[in-house]
C-alpha cells in the first residue's frame, strides 16, 4: 500500500485540537503524540527531498552522457531490480504495525516475536528474489528484443548483481521496520539518504570514466549490501530491546503476521501491476521510447514518494488511535487528512501539467522534452487521481480492514495491466500512459462505491462529505491552471508574468479554500514563532 499524506504538512501538530490527533495509548499526552508524528513526517520529507534531488541530478547527467539506447537499458536494469522489492509483500508494514501496537503496551517481547516472524518471511522472500533475478537475467533477450544485442551481456550481469543485493536487502529490511514501528523514522531515513547519495555519486563517476553497464551494476549492488548491513547494526545499537531472532518464532505469531501480509500482498501485487510494470512493457513493445517514458515517470514517482512520506507516519498512528477513538472520530480525521493530501497532490502535480515542457527542457534538454511531454501530462494526471484515496487506503490498512478494499485494488491492477499490454501493442508507449489513467478512475470509483461501505464500522464517513469536503473543496485550486491551459494552449517557455499570476492565484486559493480559519491561524503562529526564534538567535 503506497502513497499518503499527513496533516502535519500543513498545520502545527503540537497545537492541534484533540479531535485531530488521538492520544497515544498509555499515559502520554496528545501533544507529545502529535509532536512525535510531526518529527516523523519531517524525517520522511527530508528523505523525499534528498531522493528527489538525486532523481533530478542523475537523469540530467545520464541523458547527456549516455546514448538513448544505453540509458534505456540502464533504466530497465533498475526496473527489473525493483521487482525484488515488491517481494516484501507487506512484511515491513506488518512488522511496523505490530511493533507499534505491542510497544505501546510496553510488551517488547511480543513486539520481538512479531518482528522475528517478519524476519523469517523476509528470508523466504529473499530466496524467492534470488530465483526471480536469475529468471529475469536469463530472459533479457526475449523481453527486450529491440535492445541492441551488444548490451545483453552487461545488462544480464547488472540484473544479477543488483537483484542479489536487493534480495539481501529484503532480509535486512525487517530490522529497519522495527524503527518504523517505534516511530523513530530518522534512523532508517538517514540510511536511505546515504544510499541514494552514494548511488548518484558513484554512477556519475563511473559514467564520467566511461565505465560500462556491468560496472555500474556492481557499484549499485555494493552500495545496497552496505546499506543492508547498516540497518542491522543500527538495530543492534538503537533498538535491540525489541529482540529479533529466528529462535523467537512462534507458529501462532507467524500465522498472525502471515495472515496480515496475505491481504497486504494483494495490494503489493496490485501496485506492481499499476506502477511497476509500465516501463518494462514499454521496453518490450516500444523500446525506442523507453528512455523518454522513464523520464516522464520520474516526476510522477516524486509525487508518489511525497504522498508516501507524508502518510507513512499515519500507519502506526492510526493503529494506535483506532483503539482510542470512535469510528465517527476516525471518519472526521480521514476527511481532514484527505483535504490536506489533495492540496499537496495538486500543488505538486499542477506545475508539471501546466509548465511541463519548459521544465523538462531545463532538466533533460529539448530533445528529450519534445518526446516526453505527452507521457508526462497523462501520468501526472493519472497519479493525482489514483492517490486521492491514498489516506483512506492507509487508514484501513492500519486498522486491519484492507480486505474490504481488495476489489478496488485488484480491479485497478487488472485494468492497468491488461490495458497497458493491449494499448502498448497497438499504440506504443502512449497507450501505457492512458491505461494508467483509466485504472486510476476505476480505483477511486470502486473505493467510493464499494470499499467505504464495508469499512464504515471502523471509519464512519459520509461518502458525499468526503467527496465534497475532502476532494472538491481543495480541487478549486485547479481553476488558474485550466485558464492557463485554455488561453495559453501549450506553454513552451516560462514567462514571468503568466507564471506569477498562475502561481499567486493558485496559492491564494489553496490558502483560503483549502485551509480553514483555525488552520491558517495555526500556520501563521508557527511562522511568527520561527521568526521570533531566528531574530533572538541572530
Briefly summarize what is shown.
With 538 residues, the protein is an all-alpha fold. The protein is built from 22 helices and no strands.
Account of the protein in words:
This protein has 538 residues and is mostly helical. It is 78% helix and 0% strand. It contains 22 helices and no strands. It has helices at residues 30-65, 68-85, 91-104, 108-138, 140-143, 152-181, 186-208, 213-238, 251-276, 278-285, 290-311, 314-321, 327-354, 356-364, 366-386, 390-398, 406-427, 429-454, 463-475, 479-487, 496-513, 517-537. Helix 2 runs parallel beside helix 6. The longest helix is centred in the first third of the chain and has 36 residues, at 30-65. Residues 1-31 have low confidence and may be disordered.
Radius of gyration: 23 Å
| Average pLDDT rating | 84
Order of helices and strands: HHHHHHHHHHHHHHHHHHHHHH
Described by strand count, sense and barrel closure, the largest sheet is: none
> What would you call the shape?
globular
- Which blocks of ≥5 consecutive residues have pLDDT under 50? 1-31
What is the strand content?
under 5%
Question: Can you lay out the helices and strands and say which pair or pack?
Answer:
Layout: H1 30-65, H2 68-85, H3 91-104, H4 108-138, H5 140-143, H6 152-181, H7 186-208, H8 213-238, H9 251-276, H10 278-285, H11 290-311, H12 314-321, H13 327-354, H14 356-364, H15 366-386, H16 390-398, H17 406-427, H18 429-454, H19 463-475, H20 479-487, H21 496-513, H22 517-537
Helix pairs in contact: 1-7, 1-11, 2-4, 2-6, 2-11, 3-4, 3-6, 3-9, 3-12, 4-6, 4-9, 6-8, 7-8, 9-17, 10-11, 10-17, 11-13, 11-15, 12-16, 13-15, 13-16, 13-19, 14-15, 15-18, 17-18, 20-21
